[in-house]
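Appendix B. One record, verbatim.
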Amino acid sequence: MAVSHQYYFSLSSVFLPCLLALCGFSKPTFCFNLSTVAYHWSPAGATWYGGPDGAGSNGGACGYGDAVSQPPFSSMITATGPSLYQSGKECGACYQIKCSAHPSCSDKPVTVVTTDLCPGGPCLSDSAHFDLSGTAFGAMANSGEEDNLRNAGVLEIEYSRVACDYPGKTIAFHVDSGSNPNYFAVVVEFEDGDGDLGRVDIKEATSGANEEWRPMQQSWGAVWKLDAGSALEAPFSIRLTSQYSGLSLVARDVIPYGWQPGATYRSLVNYL
């Protein structure tokens, strides 16, 4: 059962940190985001795909690749129907899910992250649908009854949007293999808090104190691109803006001079 919380705060203690974060001057602290709201449970359908103990697919429509089977995702992932996937803007969003409609259900919530799209069947017809990895589907079961639950077919579950929490992880940027001096594309990974992205901007070294941010376009899934038309000068800073709360933060000079396509660069920042 969701628990209601009341928060008492002054305008300056909340508005000022949020304003600074939105302007890219600081790391977000307490603000109106998923880490400060109570859970609200809603009904959904659930199925699973891939191997019984697998990660669904190798990366899926969000573009995370092999990362879906490795920590911190650890195969606890889901494809979502179009209503939740939102053309890839909700890649990286985290949910708690639980089931009680089957004898093998534990009714205990587990956390999954959106890494893929389920475009048809019940994923399209249901108002909300989770096509889970075999690992995530089995995690909703009583101990020792995972296979019984996976044999249930389409399952009625409850879900709640929650803050992502990747302890010890900072946001990572995986440079797309097709990137070159005039075209830069990157997969953004491991965003704490809201998990999703509504906007990504990039700043070249030549921008200097002018803070000339250039908007990147969502290419597909969690991949954002800039087709500059001329050579870009590293290092690059990247500014991320959450789709859910609008909070922004800046990974300064996170893409170094001499960057390589296919490489992953870790920042020093995250939302929580």
